[in-house]
Amino acid sequence: MKRFDRNDGPIKSNELETYLERGYSKATLRWLTSVWESEDNPKALMSVVETTDVLKPRFQEVSDDAKAAFTSIQRHGGRVRGENLRRESLLVGGADLTVPLQELVQQGLLVVVPNPGDVELDVEPLIANGQFVYHELAVPEALFESNASFDESVASHQGKEDVGEVEPGSTDLLELNLLTLAVELQRVELRLNKNGSPNRRSLARVATGIVMPGQKHELGEDFDPNDVDQIDYTLFVLAIAEELQMLVRDEDKIVGAPVPTKAFFDSTQESRDRQLMQAFRVMKNWHEVPPGEEEGLDEIGALDAGRDAIALRGYVVSVLKRANFSQWTAANSVVDLCRLLDEGFFTDAVGKIGVKSGRAYVRALVLRALHWLGLVDVGDDNWIRFTERGQMMLGQTMEVEPAKEQPCMVVQPNMEIMVFLDAATTTALHEVYVLSERTNVADRVINFSLSPQNVQRAFAQGRTADSVAKTLSKFSSVPVPDSIKVQLEDWERLHQRVEIRTDGFLLRHRDPEHLDMLVDEMMVDRNSPPTAVRLGPTAVFMTNVSEEALRKFLDRHGATHINYDGVIPPCLEFVDPLKVAFKPIQADIVTWHELPQIADEVDGEVGYRTFEINASKVRKRYPDNPIHAVCEFLSEHTDGGLPPAQRIALMSALGESPQVDFRNNATLLVVDSDEIGEIFAEMEESNSLIHERLGPRAFQLIEGTLERAQELLRALGVDA
């Protein structure tokens, strides 16, 4: 008996002879005899592969989709695994090729090649149930040679030229709306319902400046708190802003956070795109499916409404990063692609959301969320196409050069400012939004009016009339009128009638005599003589206190209550597993006070204070739920948030180490919880290890990376 002789290109007679003797069942031999109209003997069957007199005319009669699929196989050298060809088609926006391939096999234009180890393979049932795509499909040699100069136009069957009216996706519009909401919420608060969703009347007061996708003007008086589309889009923008930390949520209200807002709009487009994609993936207070008639509008944007959708949203984004929709593509093709690439994970992720149809959810995600995010343009009949910025956000094209600051506005003597969006950077837009009130939005021009209230607020944050004038001059294409500078100086003089002290702290005690003792204790700091302003018998405001003196004071008075008014800027950074460092001059009081209670100071880089997390200290400091509490503290105080790898290391150190199982024969990594699976998938170090995610807890590793994966997990304290 001949050995199993497998070729790489089209199927030849000697290879077919091997399969006829060993690989195929008798039923398959009879089927090949019938479909190839051959005599019932191996020699006659092999001659078909060499001559294909029967098959040549059949090729001209098959459908255009089947010809396109055949042409794709020709491009692969005459042989390809069916599922790989199907996946390749979906990734470039084409249709599912299962039916066209099935037509080719039924006509005998493709040969289903047995897998290694197959004996007595029965092909007909595989064709009937679609399982033939999990085999290699090979073109008969003579047919391959006769069609060697295939038509490229036939192969490019996906795409569409005319999609009717197009509604472009715009990340610029999203950023403009983020800026509008974030700055407005620095001035007024947004009240919340009991379920965490924004109160609609309160929302109507802060969202009138929103510009809806496809529109050119702000909503203004047209904002309708009962309009589902307006409410849903506004809460989408709000949810993104909250994930970007532009907003701070209290129990019953949301307010703006100036420092993170400025940091976002001062960053490069590459950085903003990365932050927007991450914020979209982890959105917790909004989800893609619009409410039905039976659902109340007050349920939109409820607290944690979209948390269960995070896994599916991240999966869809990861699929799109691998796709290449260079032409208009049907949204249903994206849905098919997401379902077919990892059907098991897709089904599990959809089940967590609780929607009736995963297809409907992904379609809403693509046509609404991704469109609002600016990743895709949408045409009639749900055709989509990646935008240029969308391709950059998904990592499919090179990043553009950073935008250069240039004159983008005209400051007029009547206190009005005209901003040209095509020339404006996000930094310039943020500055003018903070200093003025927006009065009108046209297509590519926005009008503002310098507002005394906003300028006074800028003075309260440390700006001066001179610095405001310089800011306006920096971005103005014409000199700032002298009348504007005079008005700014008048507002500054009015502002200076009130003495404002910043960067201090309030010291309280119910016993006035004891308070005097505490103040005297603080006043002995020789390195930085403090200033004390008595506000009453039980309160003193102190400024110019050195960090070291304040830290020692807090150590001596453990019952002291520390209360910050505003957002504490993160100052910690991880330098090794369970080791954090910070620059003393950048650390806040809470970090100074809390860190020594959960960590031990160790030697580190010059200019930094370095601490190593101590598990026993953590348990003593947070006896109820140590892992949750320490992760929450470190996440809030670490620049960029708590890295996933450090979260695993903390769990390991505190005795809740996740267990993993390496299956060497399949290079499979399995963790013991969905949470650890999400964390491992998010780790940057995992990008070079994971070949494919097989489910919430399972990963197929890239060949040859097993030892590196084990070393990574051991370094985090995981028993691997």
Give your account of this protein's structure:
By secondary structure, this protein is an alpha+beta fold. The chain contains 32 helices and 24 strands. The strands form 7 sheets. The protein has a 4-stranded antiparallel sheet. Strands 17-18-20-19 form a 4-stranded antiparallel sheet. Mean pLDDT is about 80; it is low at about 150-160. The radius of gyration is 33 Å and the shape is globular. Helices cover about 45% and strands about 15% of the residues.
Detail the poorly predicted runs.
Answer: 149-158
Using only CA atoms, what is the Rg?
Answer: 33 Å
Helix and strand content put the structural class at alpha+beta
Oligomeric category: single chain
Major sheet summary line? 4 strands, antiparallel
Distance between the ends = 46 Å
Strand content: 5-15%
